[in-house]
Structure formats: structure tokens, C-alpha cells
Amino acid sequence: MMLRVHVTWFVKGLDVEADALAIVDVLRFSTTVSMALEMGFKTIYVFPGLGDAICFARAKKIPLLAEVGGIKPSEADMDNSPSDIAQRGWTYLSRGVDKLVIRTSAGGVLTCKAVQKELDSVFVASTVNARGVAEALISGGYRVINIVCAGVGLERFAIEDFIGAGALIHEILKVNGNVELSPVAVAALNVFRSAVARLQDFMRLSESGKIVSSTGHRSDIEIASMLNISRAIPCAKPLQDAGGAIIRKLET
């Protein structure tokens, strides 16, 4: 059976008909979620609005990771940052706190929109977990996969997301060669293959990379440039009656 793969952008990209979605926001939502699940967090609640995220985190007494326009708000316990969670997450896990709340300006909002499509499978993919997500997509027996890139603020092209989409396609092709790629998917694959030897440079010089560096989180770029360091496969479902999403690791 031929597998078709699309690469689309922003919220409007969700309109493409598909059996499964993969949300890509390399800097930094997808990478943060993947690394948090990899280190042992079990559940991540995602909200599109900061107010709802704050209220939920305080009510449940669990840590809040958040950014607004790339900046950590004072109400958040940690930034939307894979390096923050890597350094400080152990403090919570050692106390038995294995849940997080996250609010971000692009990937988090896109994920909350995606789960409203009522598909069985909405994955969160990045460079750090491309292989695991690719294997899950192949084993799921889907006919049409839509890789949706968040971009900068859900409105501008982000080279790191295009690279992330290309990394996912690269891993899909390693498992299944019977794949039909859309023209944009072909372009993403070629960009990834051209950039793979210098991923950190491409990400550091991107618009998002410059924002991340300006906030003192250059280590986030270093993490995001590492391929397949996480085996976590984040799978998102609707958070009932809350307008958000709930992410857990797919058990394989």
C-alpha cells in the first residue's frame, strides 16, 4: 500500500485530509515535550492560553513550562526549554511529580488545534525523536500522513521546522520505501539532507534560533540539533472540556 506524506504549515495546514498528523516545532515545543517524556514525565497538559495554563497548574499543583513570544512569563516555573527540563525536571521527578503543564506560542497552540480534528493519531515530532515517530507512523498502517510545521508564531517560515519535517521523512523512507511525497515534502527532505552535517549552525542562525539565543538558552539549540537522542513518541489527545490537549508517550 502506497503511503502519502504531506508537509504543511501553520493552523491552515490542518485542513489537509490525513489519517495521522505529526506536529513539528523544533525550537522548542516539540523538543521540550520529547525530552520531558524521555526523562520520565508521564503526562503533559497543553493549553493555548497562558491564563488557563496557570490556573490548571496551580489547581493540580504541578509545574508550568511556558513562553509568550519566546519569553518565559514570571508565573511559569520553567521556560519552554529542553535544557531547563533536563536540568530542573529531576527535582520534580524525585518528589514523585511526573506531570507538567505547558503553554507555548506556536507548537502548543497548533497541537491544541490538531486534537480537535478528532483523529486517532496526533504525534509530536522533532529532530530528537524523528526515528521513533517515523516507526510509529509506519506501524500504524496510515495511508496519508500530514506533517504540520508550526513556524515562527504560527505565521512565518522556520527553517528548523522544515529540517525537522525532512528528518522525519528521512526516517520514514528508511523503514518504508513505498512512499509518495508531496512537492513540499520532497523539498523538506532535500533541505534536511543538505543541512544534516551542520544542523546546529542552521538552527542557530534561524529567526527562532536568534530569539532562543537572546534569552540565554543557546543550549536548547544544541539539544535540538541532536538526531534521535529520544525514543519517546508523544501522542496527543483532546483534554475534555478544557480546550487543550493531553500528551502521553505512546507505548510500543
* Mean pLDDT value: 96
Low-confidence stretches: none
- Characterize the main sheet: 5 strands, parallel
Overall, the morphology is: globular
Spatial sequence of strands, sheet with the most strands: 6-2-7-1-8
Order of helices and strands: EEHEHEHEHEHEHEHHHHEE
**Alpha carbon gap, first and last residue:** 23 Å
Secondary structure category: alpha/beta
> Which fold does the CATH topology refer to?
putative 2-phosphosulfolactate phosphatase
Strand content: 15-25%
Q: So how many helices?
A: 10
Say what oligomer this is.
Answer: single chain
Descriptive overview:
The chain is of the alpha/beta class and 252 residues long. It has a single domain, classed as putative 2-phosphosulfolactate phosphatase (Alpha-Beta Complex), CATH 3.90.1560.10. The protein is built from ten helices and ten strands. The protein has helices at residues 29-39, 50-60, 82-93, 107-114, 130-139, 159-175, 183-195, 199-204, 207-214, 218-224; strands at 3-9, 20-24, 43-46, 64-66, 99-103, 121-125, 144-149, 179-181, 234-239, 244-249. The strands form two sheets. A five-stranded parallel beta sheet has the order 6-2-7-1-8, with helices on both faces. A five-stranded mixed beta sheet has the order 4-5-3-10-9, sandwiched between helices. A hairpin with a 4-residue loop joins strand 9 (234-239) and strand 10 (244-249). Helix 5 packs across helix 6 (159-175) and helix 6 (159-175) crosses helix 7 (183-195). The longest helix is centred in the middle third of the chain and has 17 residues, at 159-175. It is globular, with a radius of gyration of 16 Å. The model has no long low-confidence stretch (mean pLDDT 96).
